[in-house]
Request: fold
Amino acid sequence: MRIYAMLAAIVLTLAAVCAYAHGDKIHLRGTLTVVTAMSITVKGADGKPVEVKLVKATTYTLRSNNADQPAKAGDLAVGDMVVVHATQGDSGLEADEIKFSVPIKAPAAKTPGSLV
Reply:
């Protein structure tokens, strides 16, 4: 019985750590629908657009071939999949970190009579 109590305590502790992993950060995940020099708009799974301001301290990471690579704001494009960690600022959400990946392009359709 003592072992079960210890296991339950460990599981509850891990669950609490995971719940607070982002601290006071707001976590957004979705697709970029608008990209400007000052902000991005993310459309989440619920379909609602959320605008996030880009600030000097924002860091950018491109996820490609299962590896993270440093990136810059200019690498962002409409259609990219993003995960944004943001903080509520005076004028709205401000991005602390943006991790993104470029959508995989579907292979070109074969046309009738092509040899490819």
In short: The first helix runs from residue 2 to 19. The two ends are 66 Å apart (CA to CA). The beta strands are 26-35, 39-44, 49-53, 59-64, 67-70, 81-89, 92-101. Residues 22 and 85 are 8 Å apart (CA to CA).
